[in-house]
Specification:
This protein has about 280 residues and is α/β, with parallel strands linked by helices. The protein has a domain at about 115-185. It contains 9 helices and 12 strands. The chain has helices spanning about 60-65, 100-105, 125-135, 140-150, 170-180, 200-215, 225-230, 250-255, 260-275; strands spanning about 20-30, 35-45, 50, 75-80, 80-85, 85-90, 90-95, 110, 185-190, 215-220, 235-240, 240-245. The strands form 3 sheets. It has a 6-stranded mixed β-sheet, with helices on both faces. A 4-stranded antiparallel β-sheet has the order 2-1-4-5, covered by helices on one side. β11 (about 235-240) and β12 (about 240-245) form a beta hairpin. The chain binds adenosine-5'-diphosphate and magnesium ion (MG). Adenosine-5'-diphosphate binds near residues 53, 55, 57, 58 and 60.
């Protein structure tokens, strides 16, 4: 294991140029199975990275490692220059304490496939909850901030509704508002539209597109190839725990000759071909 020395993020000069996320040789094993096998990736301010790849290739594990929700075995992840999950004590790399980890990951927001809203809280309450509990906001300040976030995702009118009265698309937009309320510097999305009925996918992608336009830094695991083609600055294809193709959308979707990627994308093309062959 490489010895990594944790340094505080630079405060003044150079801070702006620091990548928001910088992973080098990220390696993750579950039991005796290698899941991530040396991932290098850099996400800079306002950049949108879309991660594509077959089921089981390690996409969720990668995002969870970047969010500090999962430990990793080798390599390093830095968030705004700060080593995530480990710290340096007496010349050795040791696991960070819970509060050190929490501090390093405080500016990372995450949205999951399942929205995980509290059923017993209103929409506004769901968005306020972490602001009060984690940030210690007084109630009125949390409510004001939560209200602004609901406006951003187009759900001001649902503030007093309970999640069960909302469509899946609306619930996912609440989950996005809840993450945004913490004022993250980067948002990680793990297949945010995969649990939705097809007709509800668009409204969530629309919110994400707007976020990207507003300059939010984002990493998005997605099967929405159209979204990736349109919004990503970089598309990374992950296959069996490695990023095997990475580049601007045109390069990845049109120009790459990588056989695994070609085969993967073919599934999407075949599906389209099926429907147009239907005469519809
Ligand atoms: P993807 O999101 O690309 O579908 P995942 O990152 O969820 O892939 O999973 C990658 C591999 O890691 C899969 O083989 C999965 O079974 C395994 N895996 C994921 N989480 C765990 C875990 N907590 N314990 C053991 N194996 C896991
Ligand atoms: Mg997954």
């Amino acid at each position: 294991m490489t010895l990594i020395i944790a340094e505080p993020a630079p405060v003044l000069s150079g801070a702006a140029a620091e990548p928001l996320v910088d992973a080098k040789g990220l390696y993750k094993r579950f039991a005796s199975t290698d899941i991530l096998r040396g991932i290098d990736l850099t996400i800079r301010k306002s950049e949108v990275l879309c991660i594509i790849g077959p089921s089981g290739s390690g996409k969720s594990t990668l995002l969870r490692c970047l969010a500090g929700l999962e430990t990793y075995d080798h390599g390093e992840v830095r968030i705004e220059g700060q080593l995530l999950g480990y710290t340096e004590r007496g010349g050795k790399r040791v696991r960070a304490t819970a509060s050190e980890l929490q501090h390093t990951r405080r500016n990372v927001g995450m949205v999951f496939q399942q929205f995980n809203l509290w059923p017993h809280m209103t929409v506004l309450g769901n968005v306020m909850e972490a602001l009060q509990r984690v940030r210690g906001f007084p109630k009125a300040k949390a409510a004001a901030q939560a209200g602004r976030m609901l406006e951003l995702v187009g759900l001001s009118g649902k503030a007093d509704a309970y999640p069960s009265r909302l469509s899946g698309g609306q619930q996912q937009r609440v989950a996005i508002a809840r993450a945004l309320a913490m004022e993250p510097h980067i948002m990680l999305f793990d297949e945010p539209t995969s649990a939705l009925d097809p007709e509800l996918v668009g409204e969530v992608l629309q919110v994400m597109k707007q976020l990207a336009r507003d300059g939010m830094t984002m990493a998005v695991v997605t099967h929405e190839m159209g979204f990736a083609a349109q919004v990503a600055d970089t598309v990374a294809f992950i296959d069996a725990g490695r990023i095997t193709v990475s580049g601007p959308p045109r390069q990845v979707f049109r120009e790459s000759k990588n056989p695994r990627l070609t085969q993967f994308l073919q599934n999407y093309l075949d599906r389209n071909a099926f429907w147009s062959g239907d005469g519809a």
